[in-house]
């Protein structure tokens, strides 16, 4: 019997026979809900037969018949009542289990986040995206038909979203474009490493969203609940529906603080900090200044993460400060990395290792942070080395800088746009067009191209997407190709940076000739670029559609875009 668990209280599955009831009892079920009308199939037992068999086994049974594709609001209410009144665990079934799963999903609207409802259905083998709009409407059949319509809808008002909006507007000023974004503040996240080192202030990295969205582009201040790509629609929380001719998806990624046991409860105190949050980066600098001796631990989770160099940047800048104050000899520094290498592009490792040695830092590879006890100042790591059984290691700390695990946002992972592997938006890595839906593109941290997730990558991706959308509007094929470019200015000390620039496969893609700036060596010119030039390039260039040093490459016209 194919029983699919949705919650501890409810499982669903296909049609059962009276002979199956004893098996259900042996599995611990105490109630049965039948959602299939009598006589729907020739091999289907009547509800009365199931009810008799259930009574003989001491189980309760209830009949809530629902025709395929005709789940009424009254049906949902009856199912919700059954969930409350019947003893659990409950097994609900129809022909395949889909109607029962749908009834459950609609009954949970308003009680569980939509992403959780869709995710539980997906795990059980049921695609519930078809009722997403109804879930957003509290489980009731939507009656609102006044949907907004745009030529291009962009999901996400971060670096990627505003940049691609500006690039599109500069190419086709007549396009009606909307950005869907719930946040009121836009952050220059690459600056948070500098905040954590006392170089920038937090205020310098934040501006109001309204001040940055390009003129002529509509800001829809709301959160996406689900996608209906077959209907060219985006469903917002509260069941507002926005439709489009073309969709761009770039909401960033999710920092999963709760994936590390005890971490959320101790962030911002007990010596636990992170430059991955606007409000915590100043605490990093506070801890660095106060530390006179002890153990400082810097962590890096499994890939992918945004700006893969950021965890070690925090270590280098902290160590540089302690060195300048004569405290380094009294501080034991550990870099606990879930991976097995210091940096993914080997050409930059020699220069970085010189600083690891200079700061006498211990590299703890294959160490994945799984728990933090803030009050006891202890961090627990799962150590997984190839060919060995995993072990647990506890490490005491006086300062702990954490890079959290990172995933695609929940509403992306459960959507039809996601890949089957990790839930990222599934795109062709060169054209950034979706592999299954021709009028959908994605860029930034949320898509599954194998590039580094950095703002510099988004700066290069935005013109590529804009060019290809305009080409599509004209009826042509993709004209621009993204080469995987990403940049990671590794701040190895105050005043010097190793400027890592690379593309797909780790290919080096330097912006400047070697005689001007050798990215494989720490230079003051790279520091000036990071500290003085990149912020105005971001605010005044990238977010305004000025594509300085970001011209897209040409797509090969004899190579068709990959399609699923």
TrEMBL record:
**What GO molecular function annotation could you give as one example from this UniProt entry?**
quinone binding
Question: Keyword Oxidoreductase: yes or no?
Answer: yes
Q: Where is the Rhodanese domain?
A: 61-111
Q: Which Gene3D superfamilies match?
A: FAD/NAD(P)-binding domain, Protein tyrosine phosphatase superfamily
Record's keyword terms, sorted:
FAD, Flavoprotein, Oxidoreductase, Quinone, Transit peptide
- Return the SUPFAM superfamilies for the record: (Phosphotyrosine protein) phosphatases II, FAD/NAD(P)-binding domain
Cofactor(s) needed by this chain: FAD
Q: Which CDD domains match?
A: PTP-bact
GO terms in the biological process aspect are: sulfide oxidation, using sulfide:quinone oxidoreductase
This protein is called Sulfide:quinone oxidoreductase
Q: Which organism is it from?
A: Palleronia aestuarii
């Amino acid at each position: 019997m194919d029983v699919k668990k949705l919650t501890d209280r409810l499982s669903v599955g296909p049609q059962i026979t009276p002979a199956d009831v004893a098996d259900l009892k042996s599995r611990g079920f105490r109630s049965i809900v039948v959602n299939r009308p009598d006589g729907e199939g020739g091999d289907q037992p009547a509800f009365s037969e199931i009810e008799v068999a259930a009574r003989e086994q001491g189980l309760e049974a209830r009949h809530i018949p629902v025709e395929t594709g005709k789940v009424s609001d009254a049906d949902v209410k009856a199912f919700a009542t059954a969930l409350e009144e019947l003893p659990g665990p409950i097994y609900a079934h129809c022909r395949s289990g889909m109607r029962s799963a749908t009834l459950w999903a609609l009954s949970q609207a308003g009680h569980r986040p939509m992403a959780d409802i869709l995710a539980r259905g997906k795990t059980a083998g049921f695609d519930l995206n078809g009722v997403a709009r109804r879930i957003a409407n509290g489980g009731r059949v939507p009656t609102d038909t006044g949907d907004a319509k745009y030529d291009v809808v962009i999901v996400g008002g971060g670096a990627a979203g505003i940049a691609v909006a500006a690039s599109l507007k500069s190419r086709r000023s007549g396009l009606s474009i909307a950005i869907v974004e719930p946040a009121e503040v836009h952050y220059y996240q690459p600056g948070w490493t500098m905040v954590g080192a006392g170089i920038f202030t937090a205020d310098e990295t934040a501006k109001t969203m309204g001040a940055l969205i390009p003129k002529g582009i509509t800001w829809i201040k709301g959160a996406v609940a689900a996608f209906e790509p077959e209907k060219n629609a985006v469903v917002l929380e509260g069941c507002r529906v926005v439709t489009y001719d073309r969709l761009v998806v770039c909401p960033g990624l999710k920092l999963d603080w709760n994936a590390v046991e005890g971490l959320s409860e101790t962030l911002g105190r007990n010596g636990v900090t992170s430059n991955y949050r606007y409000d915590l980066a100043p605490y990093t600098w506070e801890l660095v200044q106060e530390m006179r001796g002890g153990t400082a631990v810097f962590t890096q989770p499994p890939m992918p993460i945004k700006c893969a160099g950021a965890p070690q940047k925090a270590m280098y800048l902290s160590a540089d400060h302690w060195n300048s104050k004569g405290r380094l000899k009294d501080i034991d520094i550990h870099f606990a990395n879930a991976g097995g290498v210091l940096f993914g592009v080997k050409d930059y490792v020699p220069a970085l290792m010189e600083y690891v040695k200079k700061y006498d830092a211990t590299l703890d590879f294959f160490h994945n942070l799984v728990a933090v006890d803030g009050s006891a100042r202890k961090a627990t790591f799962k150590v997984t080395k190839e060919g060995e059984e995993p072990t647990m290691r506890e490490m005491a700390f006086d300062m702990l800088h954490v890079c959290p695990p990172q995933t695609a946002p929940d509403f992306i992972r459960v959507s039809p746009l996601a890949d089957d592997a990790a839930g990222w938006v599934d795109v062709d890595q060169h054209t950034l067009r979706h592999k299954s839906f021709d009028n959908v593109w994605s860029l930034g941290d949320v898509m599954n191209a194998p590039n580094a997730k950095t703002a510099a990558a988004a700066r290069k991706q935005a013109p590529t997407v804009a060019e290809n959308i305009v080409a599509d509007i004209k009826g042509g094929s993709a004209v621009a190709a993204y080469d995987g470019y990403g940049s990671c200015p590794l701040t190895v000390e105050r005043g010097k940076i190793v400027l890592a620039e690379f593309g797909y496969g780790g290919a080096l893609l330097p912006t400047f000739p070697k005689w001007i700036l050798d990215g494989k060596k720490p230079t003051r010119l790279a520091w000036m670029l990071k500290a003085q030039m990149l912020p105005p390039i971001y605010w005044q260039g990238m977010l305004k559609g000025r594509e300085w040093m970001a011209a897209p490459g040409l797509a090969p016209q004899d190579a068709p875009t990959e399609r699923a």
